[in-house]
Design a protein that fits this description.
Bound molecules: siroheme, iron/sulfur cluster
Number of helices: 18
Largest sheet: 5 strands, antiparallel
Number of domains: 3
Distance between the termini: 36 Å
CATH topology of the largest domain: Sulfite Reductase Hemoprotein, domain 1
CATH class of the largest domain: Alpha Beta
Helix content: 25-40%
Number of strands: 20
Structural class: alpha+beta
Strand order of the largest sheet: 1-2-5-4-13
CATH superfamily of the largest domain: Sulfite Reductase Hemoprotein, domain 1
C-alpha cells in the first residue's frame, strides 16, 4: 500500500504530499533548524515536526506589537513528551522540572492524554531540549502527527495487580505502534548522519503514515478516567480472579467538530468484541492498518477513523478486521464503569502501597504567589521513591508510596498546601480546560486561563443550592477541536469567539453518552443565567444518586444524543 500513483497523490491534501516527499519524516528539518534568519521552520517542516512531538507556535498576544515593529511573530515551540500510561519516575520528574526551567517558560503542562508539554522553547534550544528529554529515557516521537499517539491507561485502580498487567499492555501497544523511521534519532540525537538515499521501513504505517492522528487507550473498569469511548481504539481490561485475561475492543471514538458544519461531529466508539490478551498487539496493528488503507486522505476534516466507520458501517469494519486477523473477535464480555473523574486523597492498593492524587488546576505545574506547585512537586520528587502518574484528567498522582515514606510525603503535601484545593467544590475538582490562549493557534476563546475565574462565579451558585459536594463534570475548550473532551462534560463550554461559548448539557457521568448543544454563542453572564435555574431544579428534584447530566436529560432540558452523526443536526 505504500506506493500511490501520481494521480491519486494529487487528489490528496497538501500534508499527504509533504509526507510523501519527506523521506520518512526527514524533510528539510535539519536545514530549517540551522537557518539563523528566522525563528521558524520551513512551512513543510512545521507539518513534519509534529511527528517528532514538536509544534511551532507564536505568542498570539505579541502578534500585533511585533507586526507594528515589522518583526516576524515571536516563534516558539511546544514540545510534547510521550509518557505511556502517564507513569514516570521521580528522577524523570526532576529532569522535566529542570528542562522546563532551563529552556521553556518555567512550567510543565500535564495533558488530557497523560503526557507532558513544554511551552515557549526557542528554535535554537529545540535540539538540546529534545536530547535532554531523551537522556532521561522519555521521548517525544509520535506525541503528535498522523500516527498513534501516547497510549493512555487508567492510572489508579485499587486493584494494583490488574493495573500493572493492563499498563504493561498499554506500554507494549505504545511501543508496537511507534514509527520505525530513524529520522528522529538522526535529527535530534545525532545518532547517524542523514543519508537522503536511505530508505526506512514502516511496516505498519507505510511512507504516508495515517490519514490523521490516531488515539488509543486502555481502561481498567470500574474507572473510565481515560474516556475510552473518545478514542479511535480502546481496550477495556477484562479480568478473571483479579488477573487480566483479555480486552473488550472499541473503535471509532473522537471529539472534534467544526462549528456549523454538520458533517463533522464527536462520536463515541463502538464496542466490537473481545480479544484474548495475547492477541492484543495483532488487533491493534490490524485496526491501524484498516484506517491506513481506508481513511480519507482527501479531506482532513473527514479523515479520522470515526468517519471511516460511519461511511462504511461498523459491520463492514468488523468483517474487514476479522478477515485481516484470520480469526474472529469473540462477543464482548461484561464490564461496568462507575466514574470518569479522579479519586482524590490517599488510596491504598492491594500491595499495601499508597497513592495520593493531587489536584492540579488544568494540569498547569507552575509556581505562583498563591501556590508553589512546581517547587512543592520538586521537593516531593526528591523525597519520593515510588512513581508519578499523570491522570487523564490533568492531575498528578504520587504513586507507590510505602507506609514508611508516607509521613514524609504527607508533610510535604501540607507544607506546599496541596490539600487546599480539596476544600473547593467537587465541580472544580472535576473540571478540565484545554490550553487555548496564548499559545494554541486554533483557540477562538480563553480556556485554561479563564476557567478558574469562571468557577469562582459558579461556586457561590452551587453553595446556594447545596451542590458544592456534587461531582459534576465540567469541561471547557477554546474551540471545538475538543482537547479537554468537552462533549463528554455534563456541562460543556466550547469557545466560539472571544468571551463567547456554546453551552452543552447532558453527557453521561461514566463517559457513556455525549452532551448536546443547549445555548449558542453566549457570554459569561448568559452562561450563569442559563445554568442557575437548572442547578436549582437539580438540587430540588434529583433522584437518589442521579447525576447532573442524567437529570438534564430526564427533566427534558436536553434530548439525549444517540449517534454522533446526529450531534449537529
Ligand atoms: Fe488537542 C490540536 C492541545 C488532547 C483534539 N491540541 C491541538 C493543538 C496541538 C493545536 C494545534 O494543532 O495547533 C493544541 C496545542 C495547544 C498548546 O498550546 O499546547 C492541542 N490536545 C491538546 C492538549 C495539550 C490539551 C490539554 O489541555 O491537555 C492535549 C494533549 C494530549 C496529548 O498529550 O496527546 C490534547 N486534542 C486532545 C483531545 C483529547 C483526547 O485525545 O482525549 C482531543 C479530542 C479527541 C480527538 O482527538 O478526537 C484533541 N487537538 C484536537 C484536534 C481535533 C482533531 C480532529 O479530529 O479534528 C486538534 C486540531 C487538529 O488536529 O487539526 C488538536
Ligand atoms: Fe487549542 Fe482548541 Fe485544543 Fe483548546 S480545544 S487546545 S483551543 S485546539
Amino acid at each position: 500500500m505504500t506506493d500511490v500513483s501520481a494521480e491519486e497523490l494529487n487528489k490528496r491534501v497538501e500534508v499527504e504530499r509533504i509526507k510523501d516527499a519527506s523521506n520518512y519524516l526527514r524533510g528539510t528539518l535539519v536545514e530549517s533548524l540551522n537557518d539563523p534568519l528566522t525563528g521558524a521552520l520551513a512551512d513543510s517542516d512545521t507539518q513534519l515536526s509534529k511527528f517528532h512531538g514538536i509544534y511551532q507556535q507564536d505568542d498570539r498576544e505579541l502578534r500585533d506589537e511585533r507586526r507594528k515593529q515589522k518583526l516576524e511573530p515571536h516563534y516558539q515551540f511546544m514540545v510534547r513528551v510521550r509518557v505511556a500510561g502517564g507513569i514516570c519516575t521521580p528522577a524523570q520528574w526532576l529532569e522535566m522540572d529542570r528542562i522546563a526551567n532551563t529552556w521553556c517558560n518555567g512550567s510543565i503542562r500535564l495533558t488530557t492524554r497523560q503526557a507532558l508539554q513544554f511551552h515557549g522553547i526557542l528554535k535554537r534550544d529545540l535540539k538540546r531540549s529534545i536530547a535532554e528529554i531523551n537522556a532521561s529515557l522519555l521521548d517525544t516521537i509520535a506525541a503528535c502527527g498522523d500516527v498513534n499517539r501516547n497510549v493512555m491507561c487508567s492510572p489508579l485502580p485499587e486493584q494494583s495487580r490488574l493495573h500493572e498487567e493492563a499498563y504493561e499492555y498499554a506500554r507494549r501497544i505504545n511501543d508496537h505502534l511507534t514509527p520505525r523511521t530513524t529520522a528522529y534519532h538522526e535529527i535530534w540525537l545525532d545518532e547517524k548522519l542523514i543519508d537522503s538515499s536511505r530508505q526506512d521501513e514502516e511496516p505498519i504505517y507505510g511512507k504516508h503514515y495515517l490519514p490523521r492522528k490516531f488515539k488509543t487507550a486502555v481502561a481498567v473498569p470500574p474507572t473510565n478516567d481515560v474516556d475510552i469511548f473518545a478514542n479511535d481504539l480502546g481496550f477495556i481490561a477484562i479480568a478473571e480472579n483479579g488477573h487480566l485475561v483479555g480486552f473488550n475492543v472499541t473503535v471509532g471514538g473522537g471529539m472534534s467538530l467544526t462549528h456549523g458544519e454538520p458533517n463533522t461531529y464527536p462520536r463515541l466508539a463502538d464496542l466490537i468484541g473481545y480479544c484474548p490478551k495475547h492477541k492484543t498487539l495483532q488487533v491493534a496493528e490490524e485496526i491501524v492498518k484498516i484506517q491506513r488503507d481506508f481513511g480519507d486522505r482527501t479531506n482532513r476534516k473527514h479523515a479520522r477513523l470515526k468517519y471511516t466507520i460511519d461511511d462504511r458501517g461498523v459491520d463492514w469494519f468488523k468483517f474487514e478486521l476479522n478477515r485481516r486477523l484470520g480469526w474472529q473477535l469473540e462477543a464482548p464480555r461484561g464490564y461496568t464503569f462507575d466514574y470518569s473523574g479522579d479519586r482524590y486523597g490517599w488510596i491504598k492498593d492491594s500491595n499495601d502501597l499508597w497513592y495520593y492524587t493531587v489536584f492540579i488546576q488544568n494540569g498547569r505545574i507552575a509556581d505562583s504567589d498563591a501556590a508553589p506547585i512546581m517547587t512543592g512537586m520538586r521537593e516531593i520528587a526528591k523525597a519520593h521513591d515510588g512513581d508519578f502518574r499523570i491522570s487523564p484528567n490533568q492531575n498528578l498522582i504520587i504513586g507507590k508510596v510505602s507506609d514508611k515514606n508516607k509521613p514524609v510525603i504527607e508533610s510535604l503535601l501540607q507544607q506546599y498546601r496541596f490539600h487546599e484545593p480539596e476544600r473547593q467544590s467537587a465541580l472544580r475538582l472535576n473540571a478540565m480546560a484545554c490550553v487555548a490562549l496564548p499559545t494554541c493557534g486554533l483557540a477562538m476563546a480563553e480556556s485554561e486561563r479563564y476557567l478558574p475565574a469562571f468557577l469562582d462565579k459558579l461556586e457561590p451558585i452551587l453553595h446556594r443550592y447545596g451542590l458544592q459536594n456534587e461531582p459534576i463534570l465540567l469541561r471547557m475548550t477554546g474551540c471545538p477541536n475538543g482537547c479537554a473532551r468537552p462533549f463528554l462534560g455534563e456541562i460543556g463550554l466550547v469557545g466560539k469567539a472571544p468571551g463567547k461559548y456554546n453551552l452543552y448539557l447532558g453527557a453521561g457521568f461514566q463517559g457513556q453518552r455525549l452532551n448536546r448543544l443547549y445555548r449558542e454563542n453566549i457570554n459569561e453572564e448568559q452562561i450563569l443565567d442559563a445554568l442557575t435555574p437548572l442547578l436549582q431544579q437539580y438540587a430540588d428534584e434529583r433522584k437518589e444518586g442521579e447525576h447532573f447530566g442524567d437529570f438534564a436529560v430526564r427533566a427534558g432540558h436536553i434530548e439525549p444524543v444517540t449517534a454522533g452523526r446526529d450531534f449537529q443536526r
